[in-house]
Amino acid sequence: MSTEPEPGLAPEHTRPRHAKNDPIMMTVDGQDFRIRERAEKTGEYDFDWLSGPHDYGFGITRADGSAMTLPEMEEAVRNFLAEIDPATGYLKE
């Protein structure tokens, strides 16, 4: 039995383990997010910023329809937070 990962699949420990409609709760750099995959299509996600100063978040649609890994989700959250204006709590203009 080979221990090599299958081409095209993320290693088991990096893939989210959840039912498609169950949210993933993630804390990144002290900020809490709820991540939900849209029921209609694999590869579409809504990220809700739970600990932010406003009801705010973002969405991602992957062109190839593939599922995101947990590290990819964390990177997406970090990229979002890097674009937030600390004075307003909204995206920088």
From TrEMBL:
Sequence segments annotated as region (Disordered): 1-31
The organism's place on the tree of life at top rank: Bacteria
Protein name stated in the entry: Uncharacterized protein
Species whose genome carries this gene: Micromonospora kangleipakensis
Lineage: Bacteria, Bacillati, Actinomycetota, Actinomycetes, Micromonosporales
